[in-house]
Please model this.
Amino acid sequence: METSDFFDEGDLVAVLTTQPLDRLLDYKAPEGGCALGAFVEVPLGPRKVIGVVWGKGRGDYDYAKIRSVIRVLDAAPMREEMRLFLTRAADYTLTPMPAMLRLATRAPGLGDPPSMRKIYRLGSSMPDRLTDARARVLQVLRDYGGLSFTLKELAEQAGVTTSVVKGLVKLSAVAEEDSPRDLPYPHLDSDHASKDLTTDQATCADALRASIRTDDYGTTLLKGVTGSGKTEVYLEAVAECLRQRRQALVLLPEIALTSEFLTRVQDRFGAQPAEWHSGVTMTERRRAWKMVGQGAAQLVVGARSALFLPYQNLGLVVVDEEHDTSYKQEDGVLYNARDMAVLRASILGAQVILASATPSLETWANAEAGKYNRLELTSRFGSSMLPDMRAIDMRDETLPSDRWISDTLQKAVQTRLDQGEQALLFINRRGYAPITLCRACGHQIGCDHCDARMVEHRFQKRLMCHQCGETKPIPKICPNCGAEDRLAAVGPGVERLTEEATKLFPDARIATLSSDLYGSARALKAQIEEIANGGADLIIGTQLVAKGHNFKNLTLVGVIDADLGLQGSDLRAAERTFQLMRQVSGRAGRADKPGQALLQTYQPDHPVIRAILSGDEEDFWRAEASERRHAAVPPYGRMAGIVLSSPDIQEVFDFGNEMARNDGPLRQVNAQLFGPAPAPIARVRGRHRVRLLVKADKSVPLQAALSRWVAQFKQPNNLRLTIDIDPQSFY
Ligand code: ADP
Ligand code: ZN
Model:
């Protein structure tokens, strides 16, 4: 290595901070020196900020004026592998390094000194005078054996005031000790309780275990229908990874999924893993960050940003439901966690498992090309079978315009209810109705700040913009023509479907599952669990229900509008619809009862609908792949989306046109530029949005060309420019 790994006091070091500066800053190493990669606190103007020692200082500044690092934080230095990962990820996503470092330090109180708290346990002597209250405290401590309590916990358990406990401490009857606030996670036992695997599952588990033992990089697609035991199989890979004394990470797409998952980890390994997602408290976040960094968390279960934790020895990353669109971060740093997992593992010499029933075309193509291994679970576990899938041709149904459940579907639901089974009606639309229309003048109520319609949410009695979240009361008078009581809800949302179902199935207990109907992820989790345990007969849900939850008694899935996703201009529209329909249908018949999926469609002959029904996935992927190859779009070509936004419509178009006129750096790599054009949603939160799209051959250094291109322009102050490599959404 060219730089030394340790800097003595007074040596110049270059520090990367989390502040939006475009270069590293020089500091003097503090008393006692500091290691390469050390997390440090440094002065920046009047403030103190967190940074990482990135290398030797440049020394192009008056040494006497350079300030010292304030102190080295109580955390293991960032490993070289992690620094390389952040650098490569920044290059790939065209993200400034400080933003990458922010992503890698997203836990509160990292700069705080190691914090301690007082804990209480049984002391060494008995007090002479034992009051009732004192006796209760000692009894609690005896009852719980060697366990220790915080002051508050102990007082509450014993039903006494904290001063009673304090009194006992003075008499040495209760011992007061300091203990670190951030406790290590309990040990996970690889051999706690593994299930007997089927032959199919065992073959896959063997292959995965062998790949882990190579101690080398590799990515495996683990494909299998919902319920085939992918989770069981990859938990065996996790077990092997822990046996090798390496850390493991399981990424899940939805917070709502984790409670069920944590229980499975508990069953398999005898204890709970570390959790990392937006629903975790700040204290738990800091604990997870610190313990992962000390190697005292063997397994992390988390959302995409868990990929940026300071693992000491990461051996395996599982990306469950790898095709899920929520892996693509759409705010701040635009990265795809699936791709970043592969990047991090390839730097580390670790394994990646991409699990899915319906892989993304990218992953499917990588497996086809032999870049990824491929393992397949072909049947469902036990006696459960794949649902029988059928279309309901809506052209043959006579349905009034304010109803969405066809007679055929209604009868099918009724049959299931009569048998005491659960049914699910799926519609991928939140709210009551997507359009509020004035019957007098034809006006549709839109958002004041966005180029979007307001969606009626009847439970909340408000109209809501799904772009910016703005709400307003449902008006009685048309804001355009002033006509009274002529506003009508048009089209169905999940709430309206519930209304219809309540009329059709008056005796059924109906539960509506939509992400906006619950105050918290916790409330939602609780509701899902209650439903799974038989708390409802009929579930009406949005795409929330498509993801992984086990409803054991669910035997019928009705898709209200299978055509919905096919209408978009999105290059992945077909793929998304295919995945979503297969996933939702997969909810039916998980346990021992055969299931059925019924898809209401006006286009039963559409190739995507036919592929969904036929069950011939490989055919679908091959056809889709060949279309993308012809169009030279991902995964067979590269794309970047540039979105410009500004409150000033003229400015944003002028800037876009200037970019288009000066596309030399793009032409040098034979990249094609499209636009500027108004974005599909041309105004969000009062900002006008313009898109440019760049398409290039797979082999060209697109990021470098984009950087050179963008660097030519001076951005007006209130204009925002974002570059999205491999864009997943085109809004
Ligand atoms: P997937 O992840 O593919 O959806 P799961 O791993 O969740 O499938 O398996 C579906 C259900 O079947 C789960 O309840 C799981 O515990 C059970 N299961 C799968 N394989 C086995 C096995 N070999 N022994 C016992 N139960 C199993
Ligand atoms: Zn809006």
The chain is about 30% helix and 25% strand. The mean pLDDT is 88.
